[in-house]
């Protein structure tokens, strides 16, 4: 398993897209170093003000970049499965004394682990810079590393299943684009927006069904920002207030998304184990 | 225990769009013993690659069973003592030759460390790739890639090696080197399963061959036995054969080919003996009697033609 994970890392680092990816991260970090100004040390800002400002910068950064980071990570790793399935590569891999489920899971974990390390670099650096500049050391922001990796892991399970069935990187990326930027955000606000326009109960049921069925990468961000701000997180049901526009996320979102991941990966493993190559 | 054992293997493919069923293997039963170099021959689409893929559980049979070292191929443990060089293999292009061997060695169950490094050195040396060990393989020529593939298949010192077109893209000198390496492996009691289009090469290397056509096993046996042409004999005489003796020989076998000191007959053992009696009765001394042999290529073409006609 470790051998395949290690090779997935090498594969990732060999891709030019990752160099671009890290240059982009480095620019973001440099912006944080040179442009964010928090002079609490000189007494200009109180600790409470610093705390609020740090929280605003953190949540603002996550709100803007969350989906983009996930999507760029997916673009960078989407070719792993189709390239593994190329004739001449897969034959050799399967001919080794390793079970097929182990091959697929290792490949999957390799990609997830790589993104996790990238997030430690990016988000860890941002947290360190903000903390050093403000003197406000709140580790809650560091949870975003776990949440964004988990959101990536959920969406990457879709890349895996599409990669296995179609051997197409492009299809996997397009489906993810549609889910991350169109369908999932739309389903999150279905109660506040769609249901105010639609009266048909069947249509409402379909939207509800899709909402609970599909992963909710954006709501992982809402969980993270709620944690940073110390906001309420509902237990089972997310809600959005039509008047104030405030969306309250629930723990159901990550739970159902992780269930989606488990089902998708279980099917992928089953499919991979039975397929003729 | 056989090294490879198949029982009534049957494989049917369904074509993607037409949904037409294609039989890739029909009721295929055969064994390979330890220490043999076994050659698999057949025209394109005969089912050779399908057979290898089933034996390595890359593809699953529709019916029947296959075992490696007595273990069902469905268990990945059956592949512990197996090496494989696929046709048109693709190694990760971002790795160096050394890293490729390290990666596949570890996948084969080898532990990273001094022993593995020593083995990698040996393999690279054997393939004349030592000076290229730190070079990314995207810079390798096809012949070098093939040699690296062969090194990869032998790295973990497996007891059984499947080679699919191992000399493909390799120059004549390289081919000779590969043949010598295979002979060396064989001398260590290893079993080699070879799939090659180069029949002359198979003839030189293999102990036993099987010929497949349209999924059927149509001929199997030792190379020496198969290349002996049935009932074709050449009699060489010490004295020239006179015209009257030639007439007597033709009276025995009207189709016999008669030269100055040679008679060729395809009429069977009984008539061969009568021809010898005729020659001896005419005071002509017999120098040699040989059963004629055909090349593997001639045998292959004849057998396939015959099968296609049937």
Description of the molecule:
The complex is a heterodimer of chains A (277) and B (310). Chain A is mainly alpha-helical. Chain A has one domain. Chain A has twelve helices and two strands, in the order αααααααααααββα. In chain A, strands 1-2 form a two-stranded antiparallel ribbon. In chain A, a hairpin with a 6-residue loop joins strand 1 (239-240) and strand 2 (247-248). In chain A, helix 3 runs antiparallel to helix 6 (100-134), helix 6 runs antiparallel to helix 12 (252-274) and helix 7 packs across helix 8 (169-188). The relative contact order of chain A is 0.13. Chain B is of the alpha/beta class and 310 residues long. Chain B folds into two domains: 4-225, P-loop containing nucleotide triphosphate hydrolases (Rossmann fold, 3-Layer(aba) Sandwich); 229-309, Alpha-Beta Plaits (2-Layer Sandwich), CATH 3.30.70. Helix content of chain B is 35%, strand content 28%. Chain B has ten helices and 14 strands. Chain B has helices at residues 48-55, 97-107, 114-126, 142-154, 172-187, 199-205, 223-227, 243-252, 269-281, 296-309, and strands spanning 4-14, 21-32, 37-41, 63-68, 71-72, 82-85, 160-164, 191-195, 208-213, 216-222, 228-237, 257-258, 262-265, 286-293. A six-stranded mixed β-sheet of chain B has the order 6-7-8-3-9-10, with helices on both faces. In chain B, strands 2-1-4-5 form a four-stranded antiparallel β-sheet, with helices on one face. In chain B, strand 9 and strand 10 (216-222) form a beta hairpin. In chain B, helix 2 (97-107) crosses helix 3 (114-126), helix 3 (114-126) packs across helix 4 (142-154) and helix 8 (243-252) packs antiparallel against helix 9. The two termini of chain B are 36 Å apart. The relative contact order of chain B is 0.13. Classes of the chains: A mainly alpha (277), B alpha/beta (310). The interface between A and B is medium-sized, with 24 and 32 residues.
